[in-house]
Amino acid sequence: MKILAIETSCDETAVALLECSGSLEAPEFKILGNALISQIEMHKEFGGVVPMLAKREHHKNLPILMGRVLKEAKTEPKDIDYIAVTVGPGLEPALWEGILYAEKLATEWKTPIIPVNHMEGHIYSPFFNTGEKISFPTLALLVSGGHTELVLIKNYEKYEILGKTRDDAVGEAFDKVARLLDLEYPGGPKISKLADIHRNKGLEPTFELPRPMIHSKDFDFSFSGLKTSVLYRLRGQILNDEIKEEMAHAFEDACVEVLINKTEKALEQYAVKTLIIAGGVSANKYLRGELQKLKEKYFDLKIFIPENSLTTDNAVMIGMAGYFKIKNGYKTNKKKLEAKGNLTF
Ligand code: KG4
Ligand code: ZN
Would the CB of 313 count as within 6 Å of ligand 1? Predict the structure, then answer.
């Protein structure tokens, strides 16, 4: 089965063509074509993603990427079985571009559409040809620029959100703190690099930032206060490399400790033995390392993290989620799609 996938929920325009085979439990994916244009350079000067600029760029980039993917895949539209497209969550003007483009192709090619939840794409991203199957229940820690969620996956497409952020997403906090440190968007990778430099010097921060909501009984998060604490700490200081490195270290420690603590609590409370970590922030080296340490305590815990190229937004994961949906009985229909910025499970 050939699935063409389109992703435009934020600042990456991405198109991929997958050859999918195998059962729901043992799917196999082959990337026939894959193309992505990141708009990071353009949004950088605004310090974050500007929705209307993202929309304009998606509009311009989609036909270019489509041409590249079909050429790379040496595939004719008539051989494509389904078009999978992200319908939310994300920036609505950006999502609409992908949806309208998918609908245009679907009409021209007479190809059915599968609407995909972006977060479901992230959930499936670690299962790209690992030969591993998802066992249930599984816990997913979804950490991106727009989301911080602990999700209990009870079965295919049966999700329960155990907790989520009450204000900023963790990736958003990385980006905002990066701005305070005079670092470019997206801030996550830059903060992570500076924190590592500080750790590799054998240094510990001389102060500690708060661990918001770490002792709350629920599984919710809050990251905006942390950003405010950074702001107060930086008052009156001249930003030099030492201060940036120390602050990056202290900030990353605080975020990661909260994420690990809540994840561990959920693992215990729901007696879960499989953990998925996905979304842009799952690329964070320190977070990955600390999560792996959970295995020292929970011997039979299996951890799934996407390969690096699939951590940030991409179309491959959207095609994979589309295949899981089809295999799980999704019936395509001719209903008009709608972009849903706040789509949940
Ligand atoms: O999943 P993603 O590509 O887009 C959304 O759906 O939001 O995630 C992007 C977010 C950004 O906030 C970026 O700063 C963060 O992921 N990020 C990181 C790292 N790489 C990307 N955060 C921390 N450490 C990283 N290495
Ligand atoms: Zn994402």
Answer: yes
Structural domain total, the chain? 2
Q: With a cut of 90, say whether residue 35 has pLDDT above it.
A: yes
The finding on whether 229 has its CB within 6 A of some atom of ligand 1 is no
Could you tell me if residue 116 is inside a domain? yes
Q: Which ligand 1 atom is nearest residue 144's CA?
A: 8
Query: Separation of 120 CA from ligand 2 center, angstroms?
Result: 10
192 touches ligand 1 (CB under 6 Å): yes
Report the amino acid identity of residue 45: E
Same domain, 251 and 314: no
- The pair of three-digit structure tokens given for residue 319, joined into one six-digit string: 């095609």
The answer, yes or no, to whether residue 48 has pLDDT greater than 90, is no
User: Domain residues for 94?
Assistant: 2-125+310-327
CATH number at residue 98: 3.30.420.40
- Tokens representing 290? 């600390």
- ∠ CA 176-199-209, nearest 5°, is 45
Q: Is 252 in the pocket of ligand 1 (CB under 6 A)?
A: no
Euclidean distance between CA atoms 272 and 266, whole angstroms: 8
Neighbours of ion ligand 2 (CB under 5 A): 144, 313
177/323 same-domain check: no
| pTM tops 0.85 | yes
Question: Which residue in this structure is represented by tokens 């008539």?
Answer: 78
* Three-state SS annotation for 254-272: HHHHHHHHHHHHHHHHCCC
pLDDT in tens, 51-79: 999 999 999 999 999 999 999 999 999 99
* Residue 131 pLDDT level (bands cut at 50, 70, 90): confident
Q: Is residue 257 included in any domain, yes or no? A: yes
| 301 & 166 share domain | yes
